[in-house]
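HOLO CASE FILE
Compound: AN7
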Amino acid sequence: MKHQPPATSHQYNGVIERYRKYLPITEKTPIITLKEGNTPLIYAEFLSKSVGGNCEVYLKYEGLNPTGSFKDRGMTLAISKALEEGFNAIMCASTGNTSASAAAYAAKAGIKCIVLIPAGAIASGKLSQALIHGAQVLAVEGNFDDSLKLAIEITGKYPIRLVNSLNPFRIEGQKSASFEICDLLGSAPDFQVMPVGNAGNITAYWKGYKEYKEEGEINNLPKMIGFQAEGAAPIVKGHPIENPQTLATAIRIGNPASWKTALAARDESAGLIDMVSDDEIIEAYKLLASKEGIFAEPASAASIAGLLKLAKKNYFEPGKKIVCILTGHGLKDPDRVIATINKPKKVKPEIKSVLKEIGY
Ligand code: AN7
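Model generated. Tokens follow.
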């Protein structure tokens, strides 16, 4: 491997190197990495108390990946394999995070990246990332589902690799997050709570847990719990949603590509997939930031909203370990904060005015 620091430096080198034996990597695969993965699992004191019954709540902070979301775990593999297979162009449809990640890894690999985004419907941080990394960004006058249909059709006809989660290497890379959770806890948690959009990530986590159990790394499996946004909850409602709506733009998806495998994860684990309202998402978003010190984007807060919804119904038995996945960083969508929290109050540049405002 070129340009890696000497082994003695102990630098972490990304999910492919760390979990190589569980991944479809050969000696010929050129490894494209931005040192993704190895994200912290943070004990959440306030949330643990809120759930009660001596339950322990942990947050897997995926916003600390190189491009600020979990997508990097799958992208390192998808791009490395695309290079191995001789592609020099990739394409994705995206609600934002996939495009940011694809653009960054394509830049690192020196290949062309084309992204199709629903016009006017992705958060400004994500759009900025895709643009600065040099992707060709096309704003489709339609929603994510329309964009994905186009990406599938085009990549089926032209020598461009699709890097949405329909690309099996995306799922392979993303399963590394369940390995990390097990390595840190010493077992699988009792419950895992996460947002569900196109349903690739719940598919990947479940695959990871099952493989770790087959390999003898763990003896238990978690119940898989997914949350969709109320206005974009096709899996909960049992039919595609033609015009999905939610302020959690990352999961504004009406016809998930991995629908069937999401149902399998739910049913094989005896878990559930439910929904939360935008109001519940915003409440959880603020609570996470103000009580746990963690800024996650609204889609990620859906897992916290879901955790609290289930806790209210006494869903969790006492003493259980619960891991919530915080899929993306809050800075991805700064406009949501401005729309949610009062703007700073203006004061005159004098001590008197400041003291008056702060009550001293
Ligand atoms: C922060 O970027 O679909 O259920 O195109 O960005 O695996 O789709 C993003 C999805 C959750 C849902 N949280 O994951 C895209 C895209 C965040 C996300 C999801 C997404 P999946």
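CASE NOTES: The pocket of AN7 is lined by residues 69, 94-98, 165, 195-201, 250-251, 297, 299-300, 327-328 (CB under 6 Å). The mean pLDDT is 97.
CLOSED: yes
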